[in-house]
Design a protein that fits this description.
single chain, alpha+beta, 4-stranded antiparallel sheet, 3-stranded antiparallel sheet, 15 strands, 7% strand, CSC1/OSCA1-like cytosolic domain-containing protein, membrane, transmembrane helix, transmembrane, Growth_fac_rcpt_cys_sf
Length: 1010
């Protein structure tokens, strides 16, 4: 040592100790002349004693100029002689020079560089400041100085929230809008209410909608029979989600994968245990691993080969490590190929499971095929229905006397061009239906501006001054309906009432066909026949151009390759369309993205990538990097995690910033313009998982840096015979293990608070202070909806945690077994937690294809590639392989997983002839109306433009009656009320939302519904 805490780079050969004695090694023979003096301060020496207590009895430093004996931080058999001023330079944890014992002992003041007594500090380390005999971390001092200001702001925030919640009239609002609630249905007995009562009631209505959006029991025992109960309750927590149709095929596949992951990790643990038992004695291995960051007491100093470098192991210890390396090489190689085989087999099983699941339940995918090859001006549903029927009848070889009949066609309009006006009108239609069904009174349906416009319409129609005497529900519905229809006609450029037939003449800027139409069949058997004989692979690739010219070029190539050359006149007569089978439900189609050009999609995707990257960069620069430097500065002196005000602030900032990144990803992914939701889910999964894996690796890097910062003996090489290198690897493995447990479990338990409670409170407080003039029931309902079921977010942990855990395969550690068991335990724990979240806390969100599950299976190539790289690492260390074998093994391991899944499992390729052969006769005869009752959605009510069009135009000749939009929660509530009325007028509606109130009873309806 130079007296400053830095080790000299030279090595000092030592002579062997006398057998059977406990004494320091004597420097003879191999020492340089200038360093051979025993009185040299801060020179590392070794002894054959197991502890410093035994060595101290011989007082090896008593006669030197540095009289204090100090143990090095890493190895208990290494010591140095130092002065009172430099105790902490050799070991920052031993800052008290005890004159009575002649040793440097522990100081009970963290961050102290020199103690006079264990509890009194004289001098602190450079990054700490001395305050009243204690050392305060300098960066924490800045936070402490602002602590009072922070506490004051918190008190102000709590008081403000209390007044917001309990005193809704804390600020003046516009007085021209008083809430009038009639006591009787005839409208008499109006009594004005205070403005704050309006807020209370709107929030209550929003809470009821929040309740309806959750998963409910619409099926009986997982069968396809619709529950006839008008009050479908929440599903039981013990519901088998592997065989229940709730949000589509995505949820059963997710829980299947979680079970597979748990079983695979347990199997890995068993195999690793067998190999460890066969290749290496666990007792011998434990002697080479640290406990709590220091060398084990069982690592005796007589293992040191003092005829060579001072940190070499003897031959026995080297043989133990060689056996460990050979065992790990064979173990991890076996784990890789076993995992690869099981992963491919599971991918094939998941595909077979999806096929059986789809054949078991009624689904809209069995009633429709997608057709492409249309011109932009083909927007007449009646004409298109006839054209598609003619084309499909010709493809099936049907005679004119037995043509194929469709229920209707659903055109993919250029909805993106309509902008935000389209969802606003859809919400308005939802409001009209709620008022018509009696969900709430029309008082809660309008903003102040809308109420004034409707009042003017009523006044012009009836001469009634509704601002003074109020309007009845029927009067409001008639005026609101008139206003709504006019807005729809203006938005869609449709002819005014009575000016045209079904769709009328096209006008400038009218709707356009985006070259995709869904042909909907009345019976499943007709759709199956078309899929079996006419369709290509399901929907082709998402990169396939929807341009009509590209469609026609591909059609010509397909006709030519099959030899079925048609005469030009015949093709012109029957049409030229590509037919694709559907693997999605209508809720899996991004209807609002149709109309985006390829350039707009590319620009949107680039903007999304740039926005997310910029957000991540800002967080790493302004939050993560300062947090890392804060932690490293503290742990360089104190061998513990910082626990001051700074650590709490950084913890809150990092958690909040990660949540903001998730919000950014969810918002920006829609700008990419994908036409199917499963593509959006894959992008979300990739982005979120990449962020979490990167954060994990950053944390591991910080842990490694921390171990290096605490290292006071320089590691010359990371070889198999270097005791300090082996000790360092064990300490790093301990850090990684402590990162996973209990951190991963605690983080999952905090997710319901961060993911559900905070968004609800944020929306609630925002609505609570919102002006009544701009607040309606529908606005409040949308704001207080729970977070949807996000399988793309849920899958993330199943990759991030194994990536973290399997980092131990690169290190000489006996903790691999415990890590594998804990990974399996975490997977089982997360399975139960998500089971609860999906059934009790989340809003319904549909996942109707297996694309996301396939992406997750392929991404597990990273985990298996990590195992392969770990095996190659031990090949390099034990067998002398070239270092390039490690990255090569990782790349080959990942690529082999992708290749095997894509070629052997083919999870995204379906044989529709197999579907047709396996489908039961009962399923073939299911009608569209029966499926509609089971799903509540179809290819018409999910198409927002078609819904609006059906409200203002007569599309009955096209098979499309007036449609109500499918909205999660609303559709279920409407269906429940319909069933209630069907059972009789005396039946009570489920979760009643009163419309007519008696004075004094309004406060009784403020309670939240569990």
């Amino acid at each position: 040592y130079k007296g400053t805490g830095e080790m000299a780079s030279e090595s000092y050969p030592m002579s062997a100790p006398v057998a059977g004695t406990c004494a320091p090694y004597k420097g003879t023979g191999g020492l340089r002349k200038e360093d051979a003096e025993a009185e040299k301060c801060d020179v590392p020496r070794f002894s054959d004693c197991t502890t410093m207590d035994v060595l101290a009895e011989s007082h090896p430093c008593l006669n030197s100029s540095c009289p204090f004996l100090v143990a090095t931080q890493t190895l208990k058999c290494a010591y140095a002689c130092t002065s009172a001023e430099t105790c902490s330079a050799a070991n920052p944890h031993l800052a008290f020079p005890n004159g009575a014992t002649g040793r440097c002992e522990a100081c009970d003041v963290p961050g102290c560089a020199l103690c006079s007594v264990p509890l009194q500090c004289l001098r602190c380390f450079d990054s700490f400041e001395l305050h009243d005999d204690r050392c305060v971390f300098g960066r924490d001092e800045h936070f402490e100085r602002s602590k009072q200001a922070v506490e004051f702001l918190l008190v102000v925030a709590v008081v403000s929230i209390f007044f917001i919640l309990r005193r809704p009239y804390w600020r003046k609002l516009r007085r021209d809008r008083s809430v009038t609630i009639p006591c009787r249905e005839d409208g008499s007995g109006d009594k004005p209410r205070a403005i704050h009562m309006y807020h209370y009631e709107v929030l209550r209505l929003a809470r009821v909608h929040h309740h309806w959006c959750k998963v409910r029991n619409w099926y009986v025992d997982g069968k396809d029979r619709v529950n006839a109960d008008p009050e479908p309750g929440l599903l039981g927590l013990c519901t088998n989600l592997h065989h229940s149709l709730i949000v589509g095929i995505g949820m059963p596949l997710y829980y299947n994968f979680m079970v597979f992951t748990t079983g695979l990790l347990l199997l890995f643990s068993l195999v690793h245990f067998v190999f460890s038992s066969a290749w290496l004695d666990s007792a011998a291995l434990s002697r080479l691993n640290p406990i709590g960051g220091y060398a084990n007491d069982d690592m005796h100093c007589d293992n040191l080969n003092t005829t060579s470098k001072r940190d070499k192991l003897d031959q026995t210890a080297v043989e133990v490590l060689q056996a460990l390396g050979r065992g790990n090489l064979a173990d991890y190689t076996c784990l890789y190929f076993m995992g690869l085989a099981l992963l491919v087999a599971f991918a094939r099983w998941q595909k077979a499971f999806a096929r059986r699941f789809w054949l078991q339940f009624r689904a809209m995918r069995w009633h429709a095929v997608a057709l492409r090859g249309f011109d932009a001006d083909q927007t007449d549903e009646v004409a298109l229905k006839k054209a598609v029927e003619k084309f499909l009848s010709w493809k099936l070889g049907r005679s004119p006397e037995n043509p194929l009949e469709l229920a209707y066609v659903s055109i993919c309009y250029d909805a993106h061009r309509l902008g935000d006006k389209l969802p606003r009108l859809i919400d308005r239609l939802v409001t009209l239906e709620d008022v018509r069904q009696g969900a709430y009174g029309h008082t809660f349906a309008d903003t102040a501006e809308e109420a004034n416009e409707i009042a003017d319409l009523i006044h012009r129609a009836t001469g009634k001054d509704v601002r003074r005497v109020g309007a009845t529900r029927d009067e409001w519905l008639a005026a609101a309906r008139q206003k709504f229809e006019q807005e729809v006609r203006d938005l869609l450029d449709l002819p005014a009432e009575g000016e045209g037939a079904v769709c009328g003449e096209r006008t400038s800027g009218a709707l356009q066909n985006c070259n995709e139409v869904f042909a909907v069949f009345k019976k499943v058997e007709d759709c199956v026949e078309v899929m079996k004989q006419c369709t290509r692979q399901p929907e082709a690739s998402f990169m396939t151009s929807l341009d009509v010219k590209g469609i026609k070029r591909r059609l010509k190539r397909s006709f030519g390759s099959s030899g079925a050359l048609l005469e030009h006149e015949e093709r012109e007569e029957h049409g030229e369309y590509e037919v694709f089978s559907m693997i999605h439900e209508p809720v899996g189609v991004c209807w609002h993205h149709y109309g985006l050009s390829d350039r707009e999609r590319i620009r949107g995707f680039a903007c999304a990538v740039f926005s997310v990257s910029l957000c991540l960069l800002a967080i790493y620069v302004f939050v993560v990097y300062p947090s890392i430097t804060y932690s490293l500065q503290y742990r360089a002196v104190v061998d513990a995690s910082p626990g001051g005000m700074g650590s709490k602030v950084f913890g809150v900032l990092i958690g909040t910033s990660n949540w903001l990144v998730c919000v950014c990803i969810a918002c920006r992914v829609t700008t990419a313009g994908f036409l199917r939701t499963d593509r959006e889910e894959v992008v979300i999964y990739v982005c979120f998982t990449f962020m979490c894996v990167f954060n994990t690796l950053v944390n591991v890097g910080v842990a490694i840096k921390t171990v290096f910062a605490n290292e006071r003996i320089w590691i010359e090489e990371s070889s198999m015979d270097n005791v300090r290198a082996i000790d360092w690897e064990g300490r790093v493995s301990q850090e990684i293990f402590s990162m996973f447990f209990p951190g991963s479990f605690v983080g999952c338990l905090l997710w319901p608070l961060q993911g559900f409670m905070w968004p609800f409170l944020e929306g609630f407080l925002n609505l609570r202070i919102k002006k009544a003039d701009n607040l309606t029931a529908r606005i409040a309902e949308r704001r207080l909806e729970a977070l949807p079921i996000g399988l793309a977010w849920d899958y993330q942990g199943s990759l991030t945690c194994p990536v973290l855990g399997f980092l131990l395969v690169f290190l000489a550690s006996s903790m691999v077994q415990e890590m594998l068991v804990l990974l399996a335990a975490w997977s089982a724990f997360f399975y139960c937690l998500q089971h609860f979240n999906h059934l009790r806390m989340a809003k319904i969100a549909y996942c109707t294809s297996n694309r996301l599950d396939t992406a997750v299976l392929c991404s597990w190539g990273l985990v298996l590639g990590e195992v392969a790289a770990g095996a190659a690492t031990w090949g390099v260390r034990v067998c002398g392989w070239h270092w390039s074998a490690i990255p090569a093994a990782f790349l080959v391991g990942c690529s082999l997983v992708q290749l095997c899944i894509s070629r052997l499992a083919r999870p995204l390729e379906w044989s529709w002839s197999e579907f047709a052969d396996e489908m039961s006769l009962e399923m073939r005869t299911v009608t569209l109306e029966e499926t509609r009752k089971a799903t509540l959605y179809d290819w018409a009510n999910c198409n927002p433009v078609l819904v609006l069009k059906s409200q203002v135009l007569d599309l009955s000749s096209a098979g499309i009656p007036p449609q109500l939009p499918f909205c999660v929660g609303k559709a279920h509530a409407w269906e429940a009320r319909r069933r209630c009325h069907a059972q009789g007028t005396d039946a009570k509606a489920p979760e009643p939302q009163q419309v007519w109130y008696e004075p004094g009873t309004l406060y009784n309806n403020m309670g939240l519904i569990d």
